[in-house]
Design a protein that fits this description.
The protein is α/β, with parallel strands linked by helices. The protein is built from 14 helices and 17 strands. The radius of gyration is 22 Å and the shape is globular.
């Protein structure tokens, strides 16, 4: 089976959020399962490829000129990078300061037009698009081509001027919502299969709270919508072989985890207070992630002798708040402003608890990465967090972390105290850590679920 997989992010090429890791992990697993996957990504940075071949794409005048470079990307494999006008920038979606580009509609709709041309060029069996950035590709494709759209975050829909509908062709009506053009709406209307990135999120988006105005459309699509939980790269997130850690460790020998903890405390200036639980947090600083609620929790850290280390970038107000908290509580709170992949690995490995105070979470990868490193997640009971973390208080034998049913600062303070109590009970903590490290979060099973969807849509369209 041949699949064209179009995405705006791909690890290790360009990382902004979880889409990059999901796209990289899924496509590798699909290839391992025997699927011929053509991965197509915008050529943001003129990234060099090995054994490169260039193809000029015959797109409409408004979308071009467009070219596709296909070759080997170090750390991934074969990939196709597409250049259309204005796609090359310092960042995928915005400048280094976090300000979104005001022409993202033009950039990604042009890219989508190029994706449709590539789908025809490769004679693929399935077109798989991801989020709004590639959703317009379905409008430009043959109606007989089976299509799948993955929803990584329904909150981002790509709203733009209705003038775009004039170039979308005979399927333009699907992209028209309330007098504007909405790329994601078009894909959700037209795709043969819709995949939300966790089973619980697939249910949540059918209601008005999480449906972001599209819950009625998703209900109308009925059985076309399924939930498939994302995985993680279990080779990369393996504490026994991770080259970024100061010492390796495993479920059978956790001595190295203590070394990782002490090294992290020293590096982040958190080795001046008596050692209680060390709480890690690695996140984009956006409203969805609830970091503002974590800020409200910080004054309570001293009550349980806990320390917190945070790595992230995004909202300037939140980043300034974390900087101020680190200055106000020296030795108790440390904040690193930015994105640092090796440091993120060291935080996952060296922390005792991992905080995810998300208001909503389509899937979440960090809680799985934390568990792989024997770090117990403290999470809200939403989306993929509900599907992956088992509360150790409610389920003493099978628990893997702490789950807060109350998505609020007060709920987080309660979860903090429960997490500290779990840390303070060596037998309970060791049992939960063993449970967490025994979980299998590989992409093998999710990839099979996607293959089933591909087969289903091919058979459905063939009828």
């Amino acid at each position: 089976m041949k699949v064209l997989f179009a995405t705006a992010e791909l690890a290790p090429l360009v990382r902004v959020g979880g889409l990059a890791e999901a796209a990289g992990g899924l496509t590798r697993a699909l290839r391992a399962a025997g699927v011929e996957v053509h991965v197509v990504v915008p050529d943001y940075f003129a990234t060099p490829l090995e054994d490169e071949q260039t193809l000029t794409l015959d797109v409409a005048e408004w979308a071009g000129p467009a070219t596709a470079r296909t070759g080997h990307l170090n750390g991934f494999g074969e990939v196709t990078l597409v250049t259309v006008p204005d796609i090359r920038r310092l960042g995928a979606y915005g400048d280094p300061g976090g300000e979104a580009y005001d022409d993202n509609d033009r950039r990604f709709i042009r890219f989508s037009a190029a994706v449709a041309v590539l789908a025809r060029h490769h004679h693929v069996d399935v077109l798989h698009v991801n989020d709004w950035h590639t959703s317009a590709a379905i409008a430009f494709s043959d109606e007989r081509l089976p299509t799948v759209v993955s929803i990584h975050n329904l909150a981002y829909q790509g709203w733009c001027d209705r003038g775009w509908l004039e170039v979308f062709g005979p399927r333009a009506r699907a992209y028209d919502l309330n007098g504007s053009c909405n790329p994601l709406v078009g894909a959700l209307t037209l795709a043969d299969a819709i995949v939300a990135v966790s089973p619980t999120y697939a249910q949540e988006i059918l209601g008005p709270t999480m449906g972001c105005g599209l819950h009625e459309l998703l209900r109308w699509r009925g059985d076309a919508l399924v939930g498939i939980l994302n995985g993680i790269d279990t080779d990369e997130w393996n504490p026994a072989t991770d080259p970024t850690l100061p010492a390796p460790f495993s479920a059978g020998d956790l001595a190295g985890k203590k070394v990782c903890a002490q090294t992290l405390r020293t590096q982040m200036g958190l080795d001046t207070l008596p050692e209680g639980p060390l709480i890690g947090l690695v996140s984009r600083l956006v409203d969805q992630k609830g970091i503002d609620m974590a800020l409200e929790m910080i004054p309570y850290l001293g009550g349980v002798d806990a320390q917190m280390v945070v790595l992230g970038s995004g909202d300037r107000v939140v980043a300034d708040g974390l900087t101020e908290a680190a200055a106000t509580y020296p030795g108790r709170v440390a904040f690193s402003d930015g994105y640092d992949l090796p440091l993120s690995h060291r935080i996952f490995a060296g922390s005792d608890l991992y905080l995810m105070p998300s208001r909503f979470e389509p899937c979440g990868l960090a809680q799985m990465q934390a568990m792989a490193f024997g770090t117990l997640p403290v999470v809200t009971d939403v989306g993929g967090l509900h599907d992956t973390v088992i509360d150790a208080d409610s389920h003493p034998q099978s628990g893997t972390g702490i789950v807060s049913l109350d998505v609020s600062a007060a709920g987080l303070v309660d979860a903090l105290h429960r997490g500290a109590a779990l840390y303070g009970s060596p037998a309970r903590r060791q049992r939960a850590a063993a449970n967490a490290m025994a979980e299998n979060w590989s992409w093998a099973e999710p990839a099979q679920r996607y293959i089933e969807q591909y087969q289903r849509v091919v058979q459905s369209v063939a009828r």
